[in-house]
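Can't paste images in this forum, so I'm doing it all in text. The chain is below; anyone willing to post the predicted structure tokens underneath?
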Amino acid sequence: MRQIAPGQCPAAAFLNDLRGSTAAPVRLEAPALGRAGETFSGVVKGAGAREAYVLLVGEDGVARLAAATHGGADEPASFSIRPPSDAAAGQRQLLVAIAAPKPLTSLRIGQNGAPAAKLFPQVLAEAGRAGFALGADMRSFSLEQ
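Text version of the structure:
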């Protein structure tokens, strides 16, 4: 088991809350290493026609939304994101993929991101109010110099 920073715990709790979800699973594929300030890309498989979102959660507990393109029914959604240029080498970053049957207004966050401790509970609450299940997956990677 890999350790995460305290600011990243809300992301892990979010995935734990989705255990047993009736939503079809998604799978996040991304590189194991990245560089601060450099863009990298990956894919979310299994989202189908659902809305696909990818969030980068740094050790500072800030969740940042990746630029994503929707795949088709049989095509993966792709994303690209740039870890903050001030993030230190060796820091673990989390990527969280979320698939929802409808757009999530709680994920309309600015360029500077939002605190993960507030954002993930808002996403769960929105899905609960709307009565739909979410699919999610998480991967981690380390920043190199």
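The domain at 6-144 is CATH 2.60.40.1930 (Immunoglobulin-like). The chain has two helices and ten strands.
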